[in-house]
Design brief:
Residues 68-149 form the Fibronectin type-III domain. This is Fibronectin type-III domain-containing protein. With 418 residues, this protein is mainly beta. It folds into three domains: 83-145, Immunoglobulin-like; 157-231, Immunoglobulins (Immunoglobulin-like, Sandwich); 256-415, Immunoglobulin-like, CATH 2.60.40. The chain is built from three helices and 28 strands. The protein has helices at residues 2-27, 35-64, 251-254; strands spanning 80-85, 94-99, 102-107, 111-117, 122-131, 134-138, 142-145, 157-161, 168-172, 180-185, 188-193, 197-200, 208-217, 220-221, 228-231, 259-264, 272-274, 280-290, 294-304, 311-318, 321-327, 334-336, 340-352, 357-366, 376-381, 387-391, 396-399, 409-415. The longest helix has 30 residues, at 35-64. It is elongated.
């Protein structure tokens, strides 16, 4: 602006000098021009120069007093959020929520996400319950100050089929300012954290699912991303079979009767099943076979002292694998003499190869919330002839023998969880 003022001042000076230059020839005109003509001509020139000077002065003043541009007022994004929740009121059919005395919500929910708030501002909330009789009294005031940080923008999300077994891989982009994320399958939250991917497992193989993600920080939750869809992965192929057994095509000609023997294991002994904990093995025995492979098809177990009062499940295990499980109740047992109760496991298919040995175990799970002041002792046993198997030529074997059955017994305990 200073440069403009200086230039206009120079122009004014040039105009003054131009006036002198114009007037000089006028006064130097010959005497043939009358005095009146020279005066008239001089007046016309002066008027023109004065008009020029006035215009230059006006431009000079305009430059001197021009105002600098005023910047626009900064805009404030009302991006704040407040989660408001209240207790249920007996007899109420709905609730009305007020922010600073103005109604912001009316309905049956017990919570409300108030949005569009100014960061850094403080708001006061009150709630009134209502029913057919009208509005109840106002709750105490609860104030909150909105964080200065805005919730993050929604991320970009994509989903694809995961590894086999009914899985979907969900991945999303990082949202600036986000500290954590939530993943929803439909309207159900299925995952969250600070990472940028999630594997949704246990889904129906080949079935389509929709997903959306939102980002959050101290300012609250941002809006949800667009929903994306993906199909869950297919069922996994089966594992490789064990080494196949190759026999003679004339097996029927050489098949013979097998022999099976049982031997009780020393461990476990005196095991304790605790309510609220997992299962525990209470009795184990070894089944050994010679001369022919034998398939164990049935196993009976006996308990003392009304076991359904203390146990929720009993299972038979082949090594570490459960081969049969019963969720027990009183009807699961058959009462036998001497206050004993028998539980049967028909339909087994535990194969013991020729010359091989397998370890079978009885495992129990204690009932939840047992009301026992002290641990309760029960007895489990394998009765005579209760382990039944069939060999290659169809002969059914029942063990243990009567004279051996007394050793297939263990005492175990059940107790209340700590």
């Amino acid at each position: 602006m200073k440069g403009t003022v200086f230039a206009l001042g120079i122009a004014l000076l040039i105009a003054v000098f131009a006036l002198g230059a114009i007037l000089a020839p006028v006064f130097a005109q010959s005497e043939d021009v009358t005095e009146q003509e020279r005066i008239n001509e001089l007046q016309a020139i002066i008027v023109q120069l004065l008009q020029l000077i006035i215009e230059l002065q006006q431009k000079l003043l305009a430059v001197r007093f021009v105002q600098p541009p005023v910047p626009a007022a900064p805009t404030i994004s009302n991006c704040g959020q407040a989660e408001v929740a209240w207790d249920r009121v007996s007899g109420a059919s709905g609730y009305v929520l007020y922010r600073n005395g103005f109604e912001v919500y009316s309905g049956k929910n017990l919570e409300f996400l108030d949005t569009g708030l100014a960061p850094g501002a403080t708001y006061a909330y009150t709630v009134r319950a209502k029913n057919a009789g009208g509005l109840g009294s106002v709750s105490p005031v609860k104030t909150t100050t909105i964080p200065l940080q805005c919730p993050p923008a929604s991320p970009f999300v994509w989903a694809q089929e995961g590894i086999c077994g009914g899985n979907v891989q969900v991945t999303w982009s990082a949202s600036p300012g986000a500290l954590f994320y939530e993943v929803f399958r439909g309207s159900t939250r299925v995952g969250g954290g600070s990472v940028f991917s999630f594997v949704d497992r246990g889904l129906g193989a080949g079935k389509a699912y929709t997903y959306k993600v939102r980002a959050g920080n101290a300012g609250g939750w941002g809006s949800f991303s667009q929903e994306v869809s993906a199909k869950a992965s297919a069922v996994c192929p089966p594992a490789a079979p064990a080494v196949p057994e190759v026999g003679s095509p004339f097996l029927e000609d050489i098949a013979q009767e097998g022999i099976i023997t049982l031997a009780i294991q020393g461990s476990p002994s005196g095991a304790t099943a605790q309510s609220g904990a997992g299962g525990v093995n209470i009795l184990s025995f070894r089944a050994s076979v010679i001369d022919s492979s034998i398939v164990i098809e049935r196993l009976d177990v006996e308990f003392t002292d009304r076991p359904w009062l203390f146990l929720s499940a009993v299972e038979i295990r082949d090594g570490s694998q459960a081969v049969a499980t019963v969720e027990v109740g009183e009807s699961s047992f058959t009462a036998v003499e001497d206050d004993r109760y028998r539980l049967s496991f028909p339909g087994l298919a535990v194969q013991v190869g020729e010359g091989k040995t397998k370890t079978l175990s009885v495992r129990v799970v204690a009932k939840e919330n047992l009301l026992l002041a002290e641990p309760r002792a029960l007895t489990v046993s394998i009765p005579a002839g209760s382990v039944r198997g069939r060999d290659q030529i169809g002969v059914v074997h029942s063990v243990p023998a009567t004279q051996e059955a007394s050793v297939f017994s263990k005492t175990f305990f059940v107790k209340r969880g700590d």
